[in-house]
Amino acid sequence: MALRQQGQHSYGDSHADIRERLLSYSTKNGYPAEHFADASCKCGSHLFRLLLDDNEGAAVRICSTCSNSHPMGDSEEYLEDANLEECECPCGSGSFEVTVGVALYESARAVRWIYVGARCPKCGLTACYGDWKNEFDDYEQLLQRI
């Protein structure tokens, strides 16, 4: 578990490296991620296609194994107005390990900012693919929906 920089990109060796990348990114953003959840499908897979619209605050993961589609966090509330775009790694792969991190309001359980991170298992590229303001009341409930 160690991120490596190559040019402007970070590369990791495991799913756990996504958290490190999100923490670095979120700290620079001014709202450091404090709590995280790794995405996993009911079928047991940890690889997903990732679609998101960070203007509307919506993200959907589609399992690479069983094709189950799952709105992440509170995204289902925003899908009607969302213009989801599928993420793709510069190497051409569209399958990712996914982790979500959240920053909280001071002395509260309410979410202030959400970060969607992903790692390409083909080349190891690890990045924050989307982030937006989020005011969900209970971060634990939100992260259970990842």
Number of strands: 10
pLDDT below 50 for ≥5 consecutive residues: which ranges? none
Judged by helices, strands and strand pairing, the structural class is mainly beta
Evaluate the radius of gyration: 14 Å
Described by the principal axes of the CA atoms, the overall outline is globular
**Number of helix segments?**
2
Helix content: 10-25%
Q: How large is the share of residues in beta strands?
A: 35-45%
Order of helices and strands: EEHEEEEEEEEH
Strand order of the largest sheet: 1-2-10-9-8-3
Number of domains: 1
Distance, first to last CA = 22 Å
How would a textbook summarize the main sheet?
Answer: 6 strands, antiparallel
Mean of residue pLDDT values? 97
Protein name: Integron gene cassette protein
Secondary structure layout plus pairing:
Elements: E1 4-6, E2 9-11, H1 17-29, E3 35-38, E4 48-53, E5 58-63, E6 69-71, E7 85-86, E8 97-104, E9 111-119, E10 125-133, H2 139-144
Antiparallel strand pairs: 1-2, 2-10, 3-8, 4-5, 4-7, 5-6, 8-9, 9-10
